[in-house]
Design brief:
Length: 187
């Protein structure tokens, strides 16, 4: 953390030098990322990502959106817009923060975005099935996503009963899953 002198913040251990949370999900045909925080460009360069088909957003905070402008390189190489999947609250923030991508007069080099509004209904991106799961970040709804037997949730402090039903299903697939509502500090 900026300005902190604690043992973790000053550690030489590379495991203590993390970036903003985001994940890359790949199949044989499709590559997507969840969230494009301020570290997005570095993360894509570090992992040598050459292709990106879509971006999913969990919620509209800057630490999850700020790197979206850097998808321009993927637009350039693919010669097409990138599909963006977000709930209506996050879509509103994307339109506001990246207004220049949605104007009638386009200038070269701006990100090309194809917005898709999502809810909690499952959908498919390329050949990757996605199950959105709504949880809460204090009083704000946040989207988590399930890909096969893997579930990605960030910035959540409580869940809804519908999530717990899906969570029980996931625990049947993998008994090592833990219910976030029982984690320490999550009450």
């Amino acid at each position: 953390m900026i300005g902190c002198d604690c043992a973790v913040c000053t550690s030489a251990d590379p495991r203590d030098n993390r970036l903003r949370s985001s994940i890359l999900v790949e199949s044989a045909k499709t590559t997507l990322v969840v969230d494009t925080g301020p570290d997005f460009r570095y993360q894509m360069l570090r992992q040598k990502v050459k292709k990106l088909d879509a971006v999913l957003f969990t919620h509209p905070h800057k630490d999850h959106l700020a790197g979206l402008d850097d998808i321009r390189a993927f637009n350039f190489f693919s010669k097409k817009p990138i599909d963006i999947y977000a709930d209506s609250l996050t879509e509103e923030a994307v339109r506001r923060d990246f207004y220049y991508a949605f104007t009638d007069t386009k200038y070269p080099g701006i990100p090309e975005l194809n917005l898709n509004t999502i809810s909690t209904e499952p959908f498919v991106i390329g050949d990757i099935p996605v199950i959105p799961i709504q949880v809460w970040h204090l009083k704000m709804p946040v989207m988590g996503f399930r890909f096969g037997s893997f579930t990605y949730i960030t910035d959540a402090n409580r869940s809804l009963p519908t999530f717990l039903t899906r969570w029980d299903y996931m625990r049947k697939l993998n008994p090592n899953y833990r219910n976030i509502s029982t984690w320490p500090g999550m009450d």
